[in-house]
Amino acid sequence: MKKTLLLVTSLCVSLTFYAQDKKLAEECFNKADYKCAEEQYLKLAEKEQIQKFQSEYYDYLGTSQRRLGKTAQAFKSYESALKANPLSVSVYANLASLYSQKGNKVKALEYIEKGLQVNAETPDLYLTRSKIYDGQGKKDLAIKDLNQILTFAPDNLFAKTGLANLKKNNGDLDGALKDYNTLLSEKPESLLYNGRADVYFKMKKYKEALADANKAISIDPKFAQSYVSRAMILFETSKLKEACNNLDKAVALGYEKAVLTDVYAKCVKK
C-alpha cells in the first residue's frame, strides 16, 4: 500500500513539473522570448514519450529557431516533428514556408501537396502556394488558391488581403486600395491597416502610409510586420535612425532577421 502511494505521489509530482515546463515554454514563445522558448521546447521534446506531443514540441522548437535565425536547426527540428507525427499539417506548412523563403520552390510545393493530402482545408498551405504562384507569374493559380480558402473559411482575412495584394503586386493599386477600404469598413484590424499602408507606400503617399502603419501598431503593438512597414516608410522619408529602430523592434518581436538582410544594409553599423 505504501509503495503504491509513493508511486502515485511521485507520478503526480512528475506531472506537475512537466505541466510547469510546458507552461514556461508557452509563456516564452508568446512573449517572443525565442531563446527561452528554444531551450524549453528542446527539453520537452527530448523527454516526451507520446509521439503526437513530441511532434508539437519539435514544431514549436523549429519555429523558435527559425525566428532566431537558426535556419539549419529549424529544418532539423521540423523534420524531427514530421518523423514523430507524419500527419501533422502544421509541420508541412512550416516546412513549405521555410523552403519557399530559402528559394527552394520545388521542395516547398512538394510539402504543400503532402500537407493537403492530410487536410485539404488548411489555409496556410494555400496561402504559401498562392505566393509562390504569384512569384512565378501564375496569377490565375494564385487567385484560385485564395478563393479556395474562402470556400471553407469565408472570413479568412489572410485570403482576403491576399486577393487585394495580388492586385497591388500586379500594378492595380487603385483596385487594391478599394479592396482594403472595403475590408477596413467591415473589420478595422491591424493586418488590414498594415496592408493598406503598403498600398499607400507604393502610391508614394507616405503621409497616409505612415498613419496606417501607426494605426496598425496602436491596435496590436506585437504585430512585427507593421514595424517593418513603418521602417520602409521612414527610410523613404530619410529618417534612417527611426527606420533602423523599427527593424530592430520587428526582429525582437519574432520577424526573421534573415529576410531583412538587404534592408538592414541601409542601417549604420554600431
Quick rundown:
The protein is about 80% helix and about 0% strand.
Uncertain spans, ≥5 residues at pLDDT below 50?
10-15
| Number of helical elements | 15
Mean pLDDT: 91
- Backbone structural class: mainly alpha
- Our estimate of the beta-strand percent is under 5%
Query: Based on CA inertia axes, which overall geometry fits?
Result: globular
How would you sum up this structure, described in words?
The radius of gyration is 21 Å and the shape is globular. With 270 residues, it is mostly helical. The longest helix is centred in the first third of the chain and has 29 residues, at 2-30. 79% of the residues lie in helices and 0% in strands. Helix 1 packs antiparallel against helix 2 (34-47), helix 5 (89-101) packs antiparallel against helix 6 (105-118) and helix 5 runs parallel beside helix 7 (123-135). The protein has helices at residues 2-30, 34-47, 51-67, 71-84, 89-101, 105-118, 123-135, 139-152, 157-169, 173-186, 190-202, 206-219, 224-236, 240-252, 261-264.
Could you give the topology of this structure?
Layout: H1 2-30, H2 34-47, H3 51-67, H4 71-84, H5 89-101, H6 105-118, H7 123-135, H8 139-152, H9 157-169, H10 173-186, H11 190-202, H12 206-219, H13 224-236, H14 240-252, H15 261-264
Helix pairs in contact: 1-2, 2-3, 3-4, 3-5, 4-5, 5-6, 5-7, 6-7, 7-8, 7-9, 8-9, 9-10, 9-11, 10-11, 11-12, 11-13, 12-13, 13-14
